Fold:
Amino acid sequence: MTKFEMVAMLTSDHQVILRELASYTTFLAGALSSTAVPTFCELLFGCMLSADGFVTQALLTIDFHCVWSSYHHWLSQGKWQWKNLART
Structure:
């Protein structure tokens, strides 16, 4: 099945959800540095795909590209602030 066939199978409700998800993700990523965006997206989507939504479960859900300590360092000591995300 091609990518175009899969997109054609989506209902209008699915398309609305995906459009909104892309909009919010882009909006939030705008508050981060360009180097933090991939890590943010991996953790965000991992949390959405995991059953519990916790970061630890997200790391088990995704095929992550960094070692786990990189994600921990990014969350605990990154140069971004939750306040910036909340303001956006």
